Amino acid sequence: MKTFEANFDGLVGPTHNYAGLSEGNVASKLNANDVSSPKSAALQGLKKMKALHDMGMVQGVFAPQERPDIFSLRRLGFAGSDAQVLEKAYQQAPAVLSACCSASSMWTANAATVSPSADTNDNKVHFTPANLTNKFHRSLEPETTGNILKSVFADDKHFTHHLHLNDNDHFGDEGAANHTRLCSEYGEQGVEIFTFGKYAFNSEMPIPKKYPARQTLEASRAVARLHGLSDDKVVFVQQNPDVIDQGVFHNDVISVGNQNVLFYHEQAFLNSEAFLAEVQQKFGAQDLHFIKVASEQVSVADCVSSYLFNTQIITLANGEMAIIAPMHCRDNPRVKAYLDDLVNQNTPIKQVKYFDVNESMKNGGGPACLRLRVAMNEAELNAVNQHCVMSDALYTRLTDWVNKHYRDTLCFDDLRDPELLVESREALDHLTQILNIGSVYRFQQ
Predict the structure, then answer these.
(1) Would the pTM of this model clear 0.70, i.e. be above it?
(2) Fold observed for domain 3-444
(3) Residues with catalytic annotation?
């Protein structure tokens, strides 16, 4: 049976703004309080989705969260009408209001961890939404994320959905941003690599000194158990605490894999040699490409500023692989020189395609942040909600939807505007009809 790896990209929400909410994310902090362009951001994301669809990839669409999050503001003690809640939060706790307006769900690499049916003991595709406990603004997402996942992947003959892990830092889970799967073919059993930043129950182990480690080993092990993965096909590896302190807040900022390729920076992992040996042993005798980038080729600072590793590696119809990179990689002379050389080396990667996702990059997320990877066979793909699968017609409808509902610019003072809440809810209500995902938002229930 034919198999695919679909990329489900997050639609940028109507309240896309730069609030600098993410400690440890250098780009997020550098651009805090800049005026954002929600319309441009959403259209940039859609253009990338359409381009991958046109390249023959299976491309899906994932809906954003409801923002401003009035429910959470009320839960925190702001009372009155919706307009009064917004104004009180603006006056009394502006940072809280900002967090409750974050459009960070656009980065669906953090939406969930996904294990394909070839890897699981019940031969179903498993989803566990990330709890994102390390950041308040992202910890608001898991319930709605779960609702959307269940609406997109609704057929319980093929798909199994788990509740997100306990809402506690001991089980801090950041989803697919710290998860990589290697395989020969998407439909064959692969090796799932879980990268973690710290041990929750062992204070003797190394941790970053400056920025938080967001993923725990205990969370990674729990997800592997929930998904029914075989011990001999799972690898757990600790991220290098030193690179976390240099702004590598998720592993997908320093490493990315696709099929039989692991593309990584030499400083990405602790105990790299033992880790790579375990991956090779569990992968088996098949051809496996470890593409290591040395510090003298590209520094960690250049990796963080360009998002060299927060790129997508995709397999084209001819079997060659291509890197989907942000323009920042093209504009960095050292990174561009490295990529120009890479496509001529003896690896499956033979093309680099550059995309303008600047609105996302300014908030700290590159092309890989914007997508959730779901490997499926033909029957599973046919069981997906087809209204959420990119087509020429859907691209036109969503482009028209953005142009109708989104503001050209947004600044912090706009977040208190009750009309923004009305606009956002109208947009999302319309979107649920386009994508046929039902009443996934609280305001619809």
Answers:
(1) yes
(2) L-arginine/glycine Amidinotransferase; Chain A (3.75.10)
(3) 174, 250, 369
